[in-house]
Amino acid sequence: MLFRKAVDPIVAGLSAVAINLAWVTRPWVDANDSLAAVLVRFGVTAVTVWLVGRLVRDPDERRSGYYGYRSSRALRSPDRPFRWLWIGDRLEIRIAEYRDGLDGMLGGLGMKGPWNRDFAEQVADRLWARMTADIPDPLDEWESLPNTTEIGEALARERAAAAERRAHHVETITLVVPVLAADPAALTRVAAHLTGIGRTTDAQVVEFQRMLAEALWARFGAAEPAASRHWRERLATALKDRNTLRAEYLDGPRRALLEEIKHHYHNTKPADSANLRRARAALRALEFELEGMSRPRSEPLEAAAQLADQRARSAADAAAAEARAHAAGRAGATAQRVADQQALAAAMRVLAAAANLGVEVQLSDPQRRWNRQTWAVAMAAAVATAPNATPATLLERLLVIAGRKAPVTPDRLAAEYGGTGWETALAALADMGALTGDAVDGYRVDAPRAVARRRSPAAARGTLPRRPQLAELWRDAGPRLRHAVRAGPLVLPGGAGLAPLTVEQPVAGVTAAEKAAYAALRDLLREGDLAFRHWRDGWRDDARITLRRLAGLGHLLRHPASRLGWPLPADRPAAVVRIATAPGTSSSDAGGTRSSPASNGGGCRACCARSTAPTGSTTAPCA
What we know:
Layout: H1 2-20, H2 26-32, H3 35-64, H4 90-109, H5 117-132, H6 149-174, H7 176-180, H8 184-196, H9 200-220, H10 229-266, H11 274-291, H12 300-328, H13 335-363, H14 365-382, H15 394-402, H16 410-417, H17 422-431, E1 436-438, E2 442-444, H18 449-455, H19 457-461, H20 470-476, H21 479-487, H22 512-530, H23 539-551, H24 553-558, H25 575-580
Antiparallel strand pairs: 1-2
């Protein structure tokens, strides 16, 4: 991807050189060049660039699966309002949008009352009823179609697929509820902050959203906690299925119906009819709809806001169409259908505003300060424990492989670090999806990018966000976070979910608990890194990452366990001691003393020589 994107400025530079004759001296250009010659060179260059695009770039885009060379990286760029000094901060803008959306829905329902818990229960009843109601069938878009077997069967398949999509829309939108109710403490924390600075009205709105989300969660009626990763994964899967259903509907039954209508009218008289014109226009728009499908957001709240906004716009368009049909006196169009679609659009706007408010609460200064402080305190407590220099648990052995680029076999790891059960442990990690490969060719933490794209065609097309791989997360984690994960992972935020990985072997084989623990490890590494970064990707975030790396050099030098590839194998001496020790002398001759790994915090393996120890030796390293 980087190579392809780098070609664009090169082509632009070469084009400018060719047009301007940059290699020719200025006196010769002034004496011999002309406007006509410049225009000719410009035309030739433009045609050449066009031919390269048509003959080289377009086929390459199709082969690579990146339309327009769109990157597969899921950039963090939440949809936040622009902050004007004379209007207010972003949180105030989101609160105003939420009030407007809620007032619009309540006005349509004729509901009034104080914004307390009882009123939140009443609003939740109406909102939940509207969310779970079946979406009515749209009015027939066609005039009287010919009564042929082919068109009848194609129309039946198209309507069945459309009905399946509408049912899926209802199921998917309900998954917004656990996302909204996942972190009520953040809403309470921000509401208390707003009250403390005198913004009591805004604090009441934020507190009302917390009560409304809890009331909706009670009606959702699930045993799994709202903060569980299960609901985030369910929403992500539903959004993936939503895109898949839409693509299959447009490229399957919808295209077949349009082609059948077009074919029939081309072979019959009159050839010009409203149905034919509509089918032609729909076919022309079909390709743009397929290529223009939006990529679901990777963050749950952002995905919920995106989904609710799309449903709101769809319901508003349907309501407008129903209103026009009712005004024209079309059969089936009634005032009740118009009112139902308008109420659905208003409910979806409330959900979108609530999700946007949740995004802003999570990105607000008090919440981010609290999050950074929580992670800093937890990492300080974790690094107080000495990490194990001899990998024994599933987590420790997984992190050893995560720090390596090339595949490794169980036999090689056993020879380097000692211990038993490497083959069984790595096989278990592979069963839970943490490793790829086998014991013969070696294991690695992630599949190569090309293999991952082949396994997920939707992600290769760019319609789904790419999940960050474990090796990438482990590399991006700062020294303190890596040290904390090795030393005391259970005390970190979300670290309790790693408990199934803190054993040498799964007791009852690989179950859903071990797979969830691997997902929890990925989430922990990502959240621990994002807690100290800027709220969006860009130059300011890159600057913060650079500063954090510079600040972490001291921790990296003092604590070898914070390095990417710790612990070092037993037969690999550290460079510091190799320089300090004279040739021909052992580490004990240089003044080293023997001690156990626990006595030196587990970091002695990376700072002392083991050149005299045989491969696979389990002798304790020197201090």
